[in-house]
Specification:
Strand order of the largest sheet: 3-4-2-1-12-11
CATH superfamily: Endonuclease/exonuclease/phosphatase
Shape: globular
Number of domains: 1
CATH architecture: 4-Layer Sandwich
Largest sheet: 6 strands, mixed
Low-confidence stretches: none
Number of strands: 12
Helix content: 10-25%
CATH topology: Deoxyribonuclease I, Chain A
Radius of gyration: 17 Å
Distance between the termini: 6 Å
Structural class: alpha+beta
Order of helices and strands: EHEHEEEEEHEHEHEHEE
Mean pLDDT: 97
CATH class: Alpha Beta
């Protein structure tokens, strides 16, 4: 089972680019962020025609997450538990049924800038809710993963120029500590389990020639429960699609698991 996470930065602007990548990469499951579309406006037919079941949790103009799956999806839920008043569409999860069932959680973690301020407070509070959901996934003792745009640069080697990010919400000590608290519950960060080298990024800003200079950061992650980590056979980043016409500023990160 090949599972990918991809912040597409707007389904209307990026539909063809997404379709081209799906046709090439052939993921069984694609977890999308920043669809920037309400559910009823999502062009689901484009993906259903390719054999994908489509589940969305959308929001007008901002945020929005989705799961595309060639395998059956069951028990779909929307919204990160813990705050019934949170109206931002940043979380969707479903059970994918392959050789065995895998719980897949798609997330778009808040950016948090500017720091300090209410947006950063929201980011940290959201991460506390994420930790609670992560603990529940572990307690189930089943294959599960949390995939998406975490808006977290975990370590200095995950940025080409870490000194440029020291006061940014993505790299603040409080943000990174909150991420580590989730990891330390017993999750495996898939890419780093396969490749410990610096210079691997999943995001390049549109400004200042970041892509051409390879001035990137790695902020898109897949966190696996022990039962899921045991099934992983490969992991990678599809970097090259960032150089195509009208790309997202993110690229897909994917894993393959024996499920």
């Amino acid at each position: 089972m090949k599972i990918a996470t991809f912040n597409i930065n707007g389904i209307k602007a990026r539909a063809q680019a997404l379709l081209d990548w799906l046709d090439e990469a052939q993921p069984d499951v694609a977890v999308l962020q920043e669809i920037k579309s309400v559910d009823e406006a999502f062009p689901r037919e484009l993906f259903e025609d390719r054999g994908y079941q489509v589940e969305t949790h959308g929001q007008k103009s901002f945020n929005g997450v989705a799961i595309l799956s060639k395998l059956p999806l069951e028990d779909v839920t929307r919204g990160l538990p813990g705050d019934d008043g949170d109206e931002q569409a940043r979380w969707i999860e479903a059970t994918v049924v392959g050789k065995q069932a895998v719980r897949i959680c798609g997330l778009y973690l808040p950016n948090g800038n500017p720091v300090p301020g209410p947006k950063y407070e929201y980011k940290l509070a959201w991460m506390e809710r994420l930790k609670a959901r992560a603990e529940a996934l572990l307690e189930a003792e089943e294959p599960a993963l949390m995939a998406g745009d975490y808006n977290i640069i975990p370590q200095s080697e995950d940025a080409a120029k870490p000194e440029q990010w020291t006061e940014d919400a993505l790299f603040r000590p409080e943000s990174r500590a909150a991420f580590r608290r989730i990891l330390n519950l017993g999750f495996t960060e898939a890419f780093r389990a396969r490749d410990a080298a610096p210079g691997n990024y999943s995001f390049w800003d549109y400004q200042a020639g970041a892509w051409n200079r390879n001035n990137g950061i790695r902020i898109d992650h897949l966190l696996l429960t022990p039962q899921c980590a045991d099934l992983m056979t490969d992991c990678g980043i599809d970097k090259d699609i960032r150089g195509r016409e009208k790309p997202s500023d993110h690229v897909p990160v994917w894993i393959e698991i024996d499920a």
